[in-house]
Amino acid sequence: MEEDKYAKELEVAVRVVHVACALCGRVQERLLATSNDHVLSKDDDSPVTVAEDFSVQAIISWLLSEIFGVQNVSIVAEEDIETISNDGSAGLLEAVVNTVNESLASASKYGLQSPETTLGTSEVLEAIARCNSTGGPRGRYWVLDPVDGTLGFVRGDQYAVALALIEDGKVVLGVLGCPNYPVKTEWLNYHYQDHQTMPQSSLVTPDAGGKGCVLYARRGSGEAWLQSLVDGEKMLEWPNRARLIRVSSIDDPALATLCEPVERANSNHSFTAGLAHSVGLRKQPLRVHSMVKYAAIARGDAEIFMKFAKCGYKEKIWDHAAGVVIVEEAGGVVTDAGGRPLDFSKGMYLEGLDRGIIACSGVTLHEKFIAAVYASWDSSNL
């Protein structure tokens, strides 16, 4: 039956993202409480910690391969094995192996099987190395951003674990783990208003039990779901009292909230601000790290997300795949700035992207922004 298609894949994806979120939460707490030596510099100058790409990538790769079979699992992911397997990374690799085994030991809490014995260095490296797909228009492959928003991660702010499944170039399901995104919207406001002045170690919601959630959706279902992260010693119950989420019904620009990236390096804030003003947005933008911006649209906490990359920057499929399908199934609209759907069939990058990306809670707002782009593009300095 059509409604059962991808049911197992979606359930497994949600469970493994829960495992990854638990790992990240533990390591972020340690990172903020103590100095941490395991910080590298990526090509884009964003810090990467041991909790981020390597450990999460190894865990998700290993779990998917165990459940579906190594021969049936193909993964497009951000990191390659070269960074961690060179001679100068022995200490980092040891830390990754320890983190992976610590996390997999508690996999049963999430309804998954732990390895019979602890994984060795070679097994962890093999799991990371298996994430070597380059995507494309044919076949089935997973798309993973182990931790999206590394800067938010090390600052104790927002970040996301993003996992999507693509078949024949189309995103068929997406899961977004948002460990610091409070379940209740009013706590997001609390966090956002105070995080500029609070010490990093104090970045928690008023009720820690309501901190963190996982969002997920299957293409064509017309439904997007949210469930809380698992507290303490509780077990993950599927579907864990998940609740349906829908985009906001606001279509008046004066009442709408714009989400935009925190980092200026790869996004043109001045063009976005001019566009927002021309359409009639009056509220202060909500600047959020990572794909949590897509979560904010899907949950109805914001109405618009725009990203116009600076010249030369190419958008990667793992930065958008999971978020796009969740927003669309929650009732939203996501296209490039020319109004065309995003094309995930061209490999690791969103090739042919027209100027930028616009995600809106509904058609009315989306059409106004598309029109505004055409009206103001010639005068921009992108």
UniProtKB/TrEMBL annotation:
Cofactor (UniProt): Mg(2+)
CDD domains the UniProt entry points to: PAP_phosphatase (cd01517)
SUPFAM superfamilies referenced in this protein's UniProt entry, alphabetically: Carbohydrate phosphatase
Top class in the EC scheme: hydrolase
A single GO molecular function term of this UniProt record: metal ion binding
Enzyme Commission number, as recorded: 3.1.3.7
Protein name from the UniProt record: 3'(2'),5'-bisphosphate nucleotidase
Residues annotated to bind Mg(2+): 78, 145, 148, 319
Gene Ontology biological process: inositol phosphate metabolic process; phosphatidylinositol phosphate biosynthetic process; sulfate assimilation
Family of the protein in this entry: Belongs to the inositol monophosphatase superfamily.
Catalysed conversion reaction: adenosine 3',5'-bisphosphate + H2O = AMP + phosphate; 3'-phosphoadenylyl sulfate + H2O = adenosine 5'-phosphosulfate + phosphate
InterPro entries reported in the protein's UniProt record: DPNP, Inositol_monoP_metal-BS, Inositol_monoP_superfamily, Inositol_monophosphatase-like, Inositol_monophosphatase_CS
Record flagged with keyword Hydrolase: yes
Swiss-Prot/TrEMBL keywords: Hydrolase, Magnesium, Metal-binding
Physiological role: Converts adenosine 3'-phosphate 5'-phosphosulfate (PAPS) to adenosine 5'-phosphosulfate (APS) and 3'(2')-phosphoadenosine 5'-phosphate (PAP) to AMP.
